[in-house]
Specification:
Belongs to the binding-protein-dependent transport system permease family. Its main location: membrane. By secondary structure, this protein is an all-alpha fold. The protein has a domain at 57-218: MetI-like (MetI-like fold, Orthogonal Bundle), CATH 1.10.3720. 86% of the residues lie in helices and 0% in strands.
Length: 257
């Protein structure tokens, strides 16, 4: 009973926040030309036009495939590298300055390099997503590996457990929360920087359509694409990432109870 009441309260709060946002948006649009700030109704009509268009699903699909490709590659490289750095102080000391460089260089600079190296292609977006997401995952996995209790590792060795068993039974439960935290952050950043990369170096995708609408001063379409992106991210966050996190860490919630 309490859970259903709290859920209804949360839904009511979200709807109230949405109503306040729409009212403020509508009032602001009355004070400006529509090409500067289109109102909610004009933006909704632009969103309907996109929905009935021929390229919407293609653009969403191509952007999502690029983000997913770069993210999966970043997950593989970042996880393996993070485990290696966490297991060896010598490797950590040697490669730490390089990691600082990766975290310092902005995504826009990586996008410029990618255009020079790969041209106007999907590889540009994949590369930018990879270079943005990989350091985040690597850092979190590295930090998680450093928190593994050395006594457990020695105990595993005393039982003559292999490297794979030690990794699966000792390291994996420890680093999983760190990995998931970094992965969620990396996916969110990767999704955003993919739009920057597509704006600069792509001939299709959501970022390309945003640039196209901006060049033609179709501000209502820019707002429509933006609303569509926000809705997609909310669906991914609430419909996939949060339930997955609850499923993976349900053992942790039980121990806290």
């Amino acid at each position: 009973m309490k859970s259903s009441t709290s859920l209804l309260t949360l839904i009511g709060q979200r709807l109230a926040l949405l109503a306040i946002f729409l009212v403020i948006w509508w009032l602001a649009s009355q004070c400006m030309p529509s090409f500067v700030l289109p109102g909610p109704l004009k933006t909704w009509r632009a969103l309907e036009a996109l929905w009935h268009g021929d390229s919407l699903l293609h653009d969403i699909g191509i952007t999502f495939s690029r983000v997913l490709s770069g993210f999966l590659l970043a997950t593989l490289v970042g996880t393996v590298s993070g485990l290696a750095l966490g297991a060896s102080r010598l490797l950590a000391q040697f490669f730490e300055p390089l990691l600082a460089v990766f975290n310092t260089v902005s995504s826009a600079i990586w996008a410029i390099f990618a255009i020079i190296w790969f041209g106007i292609s999907g590889a540009t977006t994949i590369f930018v997503v990879f270079m943005t997401a990989m350091p985040l995952i690597l850092t979190n996995v590295w930090q998680g590996a450093q928190t593994v209790d050395a006594q457990y590792v020695e105990l595993a060795r005393s039982f003559r457990m292999g490297r794979w068993q030690t990794l699966r039974k000792i390291y994996l439960p420890t680093i999983l929360p760190y990995f998931f935290s970094g992965a969620r952050l990396a996916f969110g950043f990767g999704w955003r920087v993919s739009l920057v990369a597509e704006t600069l170096g792509a001939s299709d995708g959501i970022g390309y359509r945003l640039r196209q609408a901006g060049d033609l001063v179709q501000t209502d379409q820019v707002f429509a694409w933006t609303l569509l992106l926000v809705a997609m991210m909310l669906l991914l966050e609430g419909g996939l990432l949060k339930p997955l996190e609850r499923h993976l860490f349900r053992w942790k919630q039980r121990t806290q109870e």
